[in-house]
Amino acid sequence: MKLGITTKAFLAVLLVALAVLLAMGVAGRWSFTRGFVGYMDELALQRVEDVTPKFVSAYAREGSWDFLRNNRRAWFHLTRPRGGEEDPEREKADRASRNLPLDAPPESDLTGAVFRLSLIDAEQRFVMGNPRIVAGDSVVRRPVVVEGRTVGWLLMGPFQSVSDTGARRFYDEQLHATLLVGGVAALFAVAISLWIARTLVAPIKQVAAATHRLAAGDYAERVVPSSGDEVSQLARDFNSLARALEANERMRRDFMADVSHELRTPLSVLRGELEAMEDGVRRLDGEALQSLKGEVMTLTRLVNDLNELALADLGALVYRKTPVAVGEVLAHTVGAFRDRLAGAGLGLELALAPGLRMAADEARLEQLFRNLMENTLRYTDPGGSLKIVSRRDGDDLCIDFMDSAPGVPDTLLPRLFERFFRGEASRNRATGGSGLGLAICRSIVEAHDGTITARASPLGGVWVALRFPALEP
User: How many CB atoms lie within 10 A of CB 318?
Assistant: First the structure.
């Protein structure tokens, strides 16, 4: 049976809590046994040391232990805490030696020492005390020495030996209290574990379910972050991923629609021309062949552009970069377009700074400039103009293409470099190209570690700004 993440988290937290409770119980029991009971035994041993001189004094006075046999009064008088001396003078001297006031009450005995003590004579015969306290490993022996002769032994049993009834009752009460507290703590641990498991795992399960729906193609799926922790960060990252996938899916669909449209138009023209020739409606002459050739060239350019963009996406385009004089490449490219610009009624203004150099693939750089020139020829109204400026700005080399009206709305300027995007509303191929030229420009610029941006031109059209790392002249 596979356990869910909620069950695993619940069991993990619960087991940790129970382990802590068990450890605390064991530690408390050990502390009571080794600490409290040991402390009581130490106090009792100190009490033995205190009463031993009283037994020495009593034996020296009486000459034997006969006065003590079966004499409970005398036994308790000798074994009780300090403060009960028979000799008032000796009691006063003892109190003075211990800095106790003369009217201080007798010391109490909470260790049970008087019930744990017994006396045997020199022949190991029982005299008085607790008859169950006999010699053994757990019994402490202290000799009673009178004038250099051992006349008896004081035996002190362990604390447990006299704690049967009271201690057992105390132990049972402690055990019951411990079990009660442990049970309440265990229930509390269960409740906390369940709450933690649900609180922590619920957002994760929500993200997991959303991921499953996203993988099934529901790119509109979103997760609402519930807090500011790592799980909420995961939810925000998921939402970012979902938005990116949704945008990519939309771009993919738009791309397929645009490609099919761009291919269908010249193919339809070719088919119509061929059917007209087949039916005898149109003659197969030079004009017809020129028309067919034009459509084939349109298809060729579109396929080449798509292939170039595909290679750029894969990183398979080869760039052989060498130091290039940018002014010379610009002048050569513009020179090839002068007649076409003049034919379109467009003026040209060049302002090229001398000595500008950059590391570039000269053929790709010329392709970049040609695409920008084609964009101006295609979209600029007759009677307008094109201004090209190159300059040095710090460590960067800047090239600006600024043309005249018509312009592009500011909201559409960032989209000019998207594939198949055209600034004008019409898709008429008489004015619009494939919509891939500026996308190819962006690919070339990025391959040269540069940037390309579009903004409103001071001449009324579009200002395409290029920026590349410059080489020293």
Answer: 7
Q: Any idea which residue has 């009581």 for tokens?
A: 40
Cα 317 from chain centre: 38
Beta bridge pairs of residue 471? 357
Stated as kind and residue range, the H or E segment containing 379 is helix 362-379
- The sheet carrying 451-456 orders its strands as 347-352, 385-393, 396-404, 460-469, 451-456
- Tokens 């470099």 belong to 417
- pTM beyond 0.90: the answer is no
Q: How far apart are the first and last CA of the chain?
A: 73
Show the domains of the chain with their CATH numbers: 5-165 (no CATH), 230-313 (1.10.287.130), 318-469 (3.30.565.10)
Cβ atoms within 10 Å, residue 188: 12
Q: CB under 8 Å to 416, separation ≥6 — which residues? A: 408, 423, 438, 454, 462
**Hey, what are 128's tokens?**
């008085």
pLDDT tens sequence across 144-174? 898 888 989 888 877 655 554 555 566 567 6
